[in-house]
Write a structure and sequence with these properties.
This protein is α/β, with parallel strands linked by helices and 461 residues long. It has 2 domains: 90 residues, Urease, subunit C, domain 1; 322 residues, TIM Barrel. It is built from 12 helices and 19 strands. The strands form 3 sheets. Strands 1, 2, 3, 4, 5, 16, 17, 18 and 19 form a 9-stranded mixed beta sheet that branches. α4 crosses α7 and α7 runs parallel beside α8. The longest helix is centred in the middle third of the chain and has 18 residues. The chain is globular, with a radius of gyration of 21 Å. The two termini are 34 Å apart. The structure holds zinc ion.
Length: 461
């Protein structure tokens, strides 16, 4: 099957040019002058449209157990929603069980994903219980296509690791081609503040945010940067939310340290006042780190434009408000943490970023596709439009208007945190390895089309 996408404007992280793209089976076979007459079985007219490399979301949680419940989206609905939103590859987290091996975690998550994914996928490994055997596993996992490891500096008594653990993993993984990622919040301080709040009856969703102040994040980012520099290795901060933490990353990078950071649309578009929505609606926004004060987002946008932040991921972790978020009525610590976002990430970043003049088109492509591919070992198979790369392509209509509503979503969850947001720019057609997986925001693909993507070791490019 040869497919020709004609008359579009190709946009990569570096370029923008008019071209026709010939897809042969699963890859880009040729990039041709506009008006080419290449023989194709099928032609898509992309006049007036932009053509981006398929977006890559390096932070999702599908089918994840959390506090006695499990996320509303599994790998089927989650990857359908990804496709609908222009994302053709996701990387989820396989979380080590206490006493278990990392391989066992990966086996369990492979089983959850097998046969269900509509788009391509990979896994980071989350290390929660370190011992010699686990350390010994790491180099071979890096070789097998799992070059990224996540550790939690928060969630005391559950996922949190101490500095010795973090330092040992940084040193070993970082010198073996791995990239260590952290959830950076000071879990000990948060634990103290949380207990005090619950004890004095401060149990509403707002207190979730107040128990996790910005300085608790900045402190952990500071410590992580110091540990990575002591180990002499790169480091990556997931879901960075605070302006103070951002300036620490900027400072480290200015000093030449290979420190990378991701933020998420929720921190760019939503703020802390959401927690005060009446009737427990504020629980919809309970996530960690929490939403920050209005005005904080200005710094994050500047960080994206300046290159201090390299990626925008969704941290998609959906729980229904009814029956799941409600578990925390009367005690915010029982509200499952997380919110949906895999479906809306690309259009929000385009509309709020490119549309509002905050970032260039090239920067947009870099943030949602190219930089994630480079940092996580998928480039150049993915993350760009080039001959021989996977035909993961988004035909994007920059003029079409959208309104985000729960009713119109593929995400299998009973609310959307961006309900009512409007903007311009929607993925019109989405191809994953040459297969049309979504059209006009609707999933049109096939469960099981998605394939596991082993990734190459981390390299500074
Ligand atoms: Zn997460």
């Amino acid at each position: 099957m040869r497919l020709l996408i004609k008359n579009g404007t190709v946009v990569t992280a570096a370029d923008q040019y008019r071209a026709d793209i010939l897809i042969d089976k699963e890859v880009v076979a040729a990039i041709l002058r506009p008006g080419s007459t290449a023989g194709a079985d099928e032609v898509v007219d992309a006049a007036g449209k932009l053509i981006f490399p398929g977006a890559i979301d390096v932070h999702t949680h599908f089918d994840m157990p959390f506090g006695g419940t499990v996320t509303a989206d599994d790998f089927r609905s989650g990857t359908r929603a990804a496709a609908a939103g222009g994302t053709t590859c996701i990387i989820d987290y396989a979380i080590q069980a206490r006493g278990g091996s990392l391989q066992a975690a990966l086996d369990a998550w492979h089983e959850r994903a097998a046969g269900k994914c509509a788009v391509d996928y990979g896994f980071h490994t989350a290390v929660t219980d370190l011992n010699e055997a686990v350390l010994a596993e790491m180099p071979s996992l890096i070789e097998k296509g799992y070059p990224s490891f996540k550790l939690f500096m928060a969630y005391k008594g559950a996922l949190q690791v101490d500095d010795a653990t973090l330092f040992r993993v940084l040193r070993l993984a970082g010198t073996s081609g791995g990239l260590v990622m952290v959830h950076a919040e000071n879990g000990d301080v948060i634990d103290v503040l949380t207990r005090e709040m619950i004890a004095r009856g401060a149990v509403e969703p707002l207190y979730h945010a107040l128990s996790r102040p910005p300085l608790a994040e900045a402190e952990a980012v500071n410590r992580f940067i110091a540990l990575a520099r002591l180990a002499g290795v790169p480091g990556y901060v997931v879901h960075l939310s605070d302006a103070g933490a951002l300036s620490l990353v900027a400072e480290a990078r200015a000093a030449g340290a290979p420190i990378f950071a991701e933020t998420c649309p929720q921190y760019l578009f939503l703020s802390m006042d959401r927690y005060e929505e009446p009737d427990f609606q504020g629980a919809k926004y309970v996530m960690s780190p929490p939403l920050r004060e209005k005005g904080n987002e200005v710094h994050l946008w500047r960080g994206l434009a300046a290159g201090t932040l390299q990626t925008v991921a969704s941290d998609h972790c959906s729980f229904n408000w009814r029956g799941q978020k409600e578990l925390g009525r009367g005690d915010f610590t029982k509200i499952p943490n997380g919110a949906p976002g895999v479906e809306t990430r690309v259009k929000l970043l385009y509309a709020g970023g490119v549309g509002e003049g905050r970032i260039s088109l090239q920067k947009f492509v870099d943030l949602v596709s190219t930089a994630p591919a480079r940092l996580f070992g998928l480039f150049p198979r993915k993350g760009t439009v080039s001959v021989g790369s996977d035909a993961d392509l988004v035909v994007f209509d920059p003029e079409a208007e959208f309104t985000i509503t729960r009713a119109g979503q593929a995400q299998n969850v009973d609310y959307n945190p961006f309900e009512g947001f409007t903007g311009r720019g929607v993925p019109e057609k989405v191809f994953c390895r040459g297969k049309l997986v979504a059209e006009q925001g609707r999933f049109t693909g096939e469960d099981g089309h998605g394939r596991f993507q082993p990734r190459t070791p981390f390299r500074l490019l």
